[in-house]
Design goal:
391 residues, single chain, two-stranded antiparallel sheet, mainly alpha, 2 strands
């Protein structure tokens, strides 16, 4: 056991750096087109094909969220109104202010100068429909509705999943403190709950595609994506049992194993995309098995390596540049697709490199001048006493 401040106990530089990598993967997924079918040169085909698997960056974010929420709250979680209020306030201060400002900007542009793109509401949407869409965006519940899951800041559909996890996490941690066996029970409970909600909503609440179908539940909701967060919690539980001061190694075998596993899953996803009809149930089922269940395991192994092994990758991720990019990765993730991207692409340039550089700079400015100051202003008062943790 080591005694440390709550701030140092919950900050892992290499994991901040890996957030930048995850955001970059998602950017490539959205920004790099696949080469035309008639292109025969392999080295021209493969960059686009690999970029199309960049959505695995979302899985990295989910595993990281599970780990960080768990490691920060294992020794703190309690069923009291004050604790829960501070917990929710801190989560709100972290994700909502910047999201709200970008959402307000997005809908203002939709109303004043619509671009008629896929992330805007339909031209046939009534005033009532628009009010529902705006309300669903402001309350972070929009990704429960298939009809407008991507309307607004398009990448922010994942915030509905994050919000669901944040509200569930205290109860999950309390259960695990009572018995680690809950770790194996939670996925079954969540997936069965998701199936039940799909059946209920299809039968009695078929509004705006609420929990529309099984595919939607497994892809766009916490009920289907819960394993990614739970793997992160499992990693936190393991780290909690093994003090880092006693276990840092100079080898890099664990980090290498995790990275190799991630690359293997990426190649399997690429093979799947090329070998089976993309809309078939077989392809979808294998894709969900790989993305939701198998991929989180090597991600967690890689994160373990970054925590416990001194490697060149860890040194890069702990550099000042990687730290800045990691801290601004949330802003980058929100702005790299949607209204700002459309405006930049239409009126400046659609060049991928130019967009990457411009959005990186803008994300850093948003982090320093908007996101971080508002986070400090709105978060709950910090505890002054030292926190005893096993990290």
């Amino acid at each position: 056991m080591v005694t440390t401040s709550s701030k140092s106990a919950s900050y892992f530089p290499a994991l901040t750096g890996i957030r930048a990598v995850a955001a970059l993967l998602v950017f490539f997924f959205h920004a790099v087109p696949e080469a035309p079918a008639d292109v025969q040169i392999i080295w021209l085909k493969w960059p686009g094909r690999l970029a199309q698997q960049g959505y695995i960056g979302v899985s990295i974010f989910f595993v990281l969220s599970g780990f960080l929420i768990a490691i920060r709250n294992f020794d703190r979680v309690q069923l009291t109104g004050i604790w829960f209020k501070h917990y929710v306030q801190n989560r709100f201060a972290r994700i909502y202010p910047l999201y709200f400002l970008l959402t307000a900007f997005t809908f203002a542009v939709m109303l004043v100068h619509p671009f008629h793109t896929w992330y805007e509401w339909s031209s046939t949407s009534s005033s009532g429909d628009k009010a529902v869409i705006i309300l669903a965006n402001l309350t972070l519940v929009r990704a429960f509705f298939n009809e407008f899951v991507f309307v607004g800041v398009p990448t922010a559909w994942t915030l509905t999943i994050e919000e669901t996890f944040y509200l569930s996490a205290p109860f999950l941690l309390l259960g695990l403190k009572h018995s680690i066996r809950w770790f194996y029970t939670y996925p079954v409970l969540f997936i069965l709950s998701g199936l039940l909600l799909v059946l209920v909503c299809e039968r009695w609440l078929p509004h705006y595609g609420l929990m529309a179908n099984l595919r939607f539940m497994l892809s766009e909701t916490f009920f289907g994506r819960c394993v990614e967060f739970l793997i992160g919690i499992g990693l936190a539980w393991w780290v909690h049992r093994r003090p880092m001061a006693q276990g840092v190694s100079r080898g890099g075998s664990t980090t290498l194993l995790g990275c190799a596993g991630i690359v293997s899953c990426l190649l399997l996803l690429l093979w799947l995309e090329r070998s089976l009809p993309i809309n078939s149930w077989v392809a979808f089922s294998i894709n969900r098995l790989l993305t939701n269940i198998m991929l989180p395991l090597p991600i967690a192994i890689m994160l373990w390596g970054l925590l416990y092994e001194r490697t060149w990758l860890r040194r890069i991720l702990e550099s000042k540049t990687a730290q800045l990019l990691g801290k601004s990765s949330y802003a980058f993730y929100l702005i790299h697709l949607g209204t700002l991207d459309t405006i930049f692409s239409v009126y400046v340039t659609g060049n991928v490199v130019a967009r990457l550089c411009a959005y990186t700079l803008l994300a850093i400015l948003l982090y320093k001048w908007v996101e971080h100051p508002l986070h400090k202003l709105l978060r709950a008062p910090s505890e002054k006493r030292p926190l005893v943790v096993s990290v």
